Amino acid sequence: MSSVPGSDLAALKTQFDRDGCVVARGMFSSAEVAELIAAFEGIHHSGESEKLHSDQITDPKDPLTHWPRVVHPHRFNATARRHMLHPAVRETLAAFFDGVEPLAAQTMYYFKPPGARGQALHQDNLYLLVQPGTCVGAWTAMDICDEQNGCMLVVPGSHRGNLVCNQLDADTKEYFNSNHVPVPKGMKVVPVCMQPGDTLFFHGNLIHGSGPNRHPTRFRRSFIGHYAAGSLKEISKFYLPLVRFDDAMDIEVPAAVGGGACGETWQGAEH
Ligand SMILES: O=C(O)CCC(=O)C(=O)O
Fold first, then answer.
1. Which of 64, 151, 158, 188 has CA atoms 20 to 30 A from the CA of 233?
2. Residue 155, class by beta-carbon neighbours within 10 Å (0-12 exposed, 13-18 middle, 19+ buried)?
């Protein structure tokens, strides 16, 4: 029996192949969402996330200085690791990878408090450098996510294009990253409204990001995993070791060298 709640895997795959992204509703139960929220409140209050985050935002007036995203929590927190290896996520990814077992490469947790900047449009494969194939993100909402609190923004169909190396400057008042990928001609940016427990799956070449959280009181918390098909031959060293879904052993593959399609600038970078 499928572990994917109420979802038709074939329909999810059809939409994923067509648009480069799809929302699976209710992937995580409300108990699982509550468990993740409690674990990350604990990590936040322990001060660990400020030591571990990688963005180096230090302006005391910036909400992200006080609520930095947590990078790679599966490496030190058992709840994050267990949810990274969620059975319904595994089953969905295996369908997207045409039956090849997925491996986990990364986790992140964004608190995105009121007033926080968003993340300008980007493509994850530029950073993960998965070869052959692609990485896939599984982004699970902990809160109601809408345009007011900075929901995810996607450009459906953009996964069919190449990685865009010539990026533009992003408005750093609105976004915490400094570059953005322009929207290809004829394509549109679409907001993805989600309920707690819904998971957005997205292809590594999909252009995506999020706007600022303009809501006066609501956080926009999310738990994110990045994955690749087990047939991959290399990935950026920042994402090694990879983790099998049975958690029996970590997997090493060669680290990508040369920075992929966009050259050295991106080598080993994180996103
Ligand atoms: O959560 C966000 O605002 C952006 C996350 C993202 O772009 C990603 O996980 O690749």
1. 158
2. buried
Instruction: Name the helix (H) or strand (E) containing 94.
Output: helix 87-96
Regarding pTM above 0.90, the answer is yes
Cα separation, 207 vs 168, whole angstroms? 14
Average pLDDT, integer, range 155-183: 93
d(CA 152, CA 202): 11
| Alpha carbon nearest to ligand 1 atom 10, residue | 124
Residue 153 CB–ligand 1 contact under 6 Å: no
| 63 contacts 114 by C-beta, under 8 angstroms | yes
- Nearest residue by C-alpha to atom 6 in ligand 1: 209
Query: Is 265 in contact with 257 (CB distance < 8 Å)?
Result: no
Instruction: Please give the DSSP secondary-structure letter assigned to residue 201.
Output: E
- Closest ligand 1 atom to 222 CA: 1
Q: What does the pLDDT look like over 205-231, one tens digit per residue?
A: 999 999 999 999 999 999 999 999 999
Parse the chain into domains and list their residue ranges.
Answer: 9-263
Instruction: Please tell me if the CB atom of residue 137 comes closer than 6 angstroms to any atom of ligand 1.
Output: yes
Residue 147, CA distances (Å) to 140, 179, 262 in order: 16, 21, 31
* CATH number, span 9-263: 2.60.120.620
134-160 mean pLDDT:
98
pLDDT tens per residue across span 19-66: 999 999 999 999 999 999 999 999 998 877 655 555 667 788 899 988
Residue 243 and residue 74 in contact, taking contact as beta carbons nearer than 8 Å: yes
Question: Given this model, what pLDDT does residue 4 score?
Answer: 76
22 contacts 106 by C-beta, under 8 angstroms: no
